[in-house]
Design goal:
This protein has 167 residues and is an alpha+beta fold. It has one domain: Sandwich (Jelly Rolls). It is built from three helices and eleven strands, in the order αββββββββββααβ. The strands form two sheets. A six-stranded antiparallel β-sheet has the order 1-2-3-10-5-8, with helices on one face. Strand 6 and strand 7 form a beta hairpin. The longest helix is centred in the last third of the chain and has 13 residues. The N and C termini lie far apart (48 Å).
């Protein structure tokens, strides 16, 4: 029996993995740490799963993806989410699913840390995007907006303005 959408050769070469707490490659961007728990290489490009630890006051601007679907699971803390035009505070145990082309954003509006698990489908080598973003963040001075736009667009991320989103 084979699963639809999986190459039999990839499945034959797959190795089982167990990822324990505090395992996975991590990068820090501003007030957040992204840990790559499962990457596209692990899943034949089907999905990736990252853990995001956000300090209070950290937020992501509204954006869309044309190819990716995202799923967010709140592991700890309270996280403010914008999905379309609706804003809600999601507490521990909450899930948000974001289909392609849906405007979304999220932020930790509290003073305590929050933890999210974020799944991307397909994987689209998202870890590369976050690595490049971290590299830009480390550069001195203001980031060139055109350079940032090119990075976003090359990684299926498109700004979506929302005057009501505070971050």
């Amino acid at each position: 029996m084979t699963l639809p959408g999986y190459d039999a050769g990839d499945a034959a070469n797959a190795s089982p993995r167990i990822i324990l707490p505090n395992q996975g490659r991590s990068i820090t961007i501003g007030k957040s740490t992204y840990t790559f728990k499962v990457t596209g290489e692990d899943t034949y490009g089907k999905f990736g799963l990252f853990e995001l630890r956000m300090q209070g006051g950290y937020g992501i601007k509204p954006h869309t993806h044309h190819e990716l679907m995202e799923m967010f699971y709140v592991v700890d803390g309270d996280v403010s989410f914008l999905v379309g035009s609706e804003q809600k505070i999601l507490q521990r145990g909450s899930i948000a699913t974001i289909p392609r082309n849906e405007k979304h954003a999220f932020a930790n509006t509290s003073s305590s840390d929050a933890i999210l698990h974020i799944m991307f489908c397909p994987a689209a080598k998202r870890e590369r995007y976050f690595e490049e973003l971290a590299s830009l963040a480390k550069e001195a001075g203001e980031v060139d907006p055109d350079r940032m736009r090119r990075l976003w667009e090359a990684n299926d991320q498109f700004p979506a303005d929302d005057p009501n989103w505070p971050f």
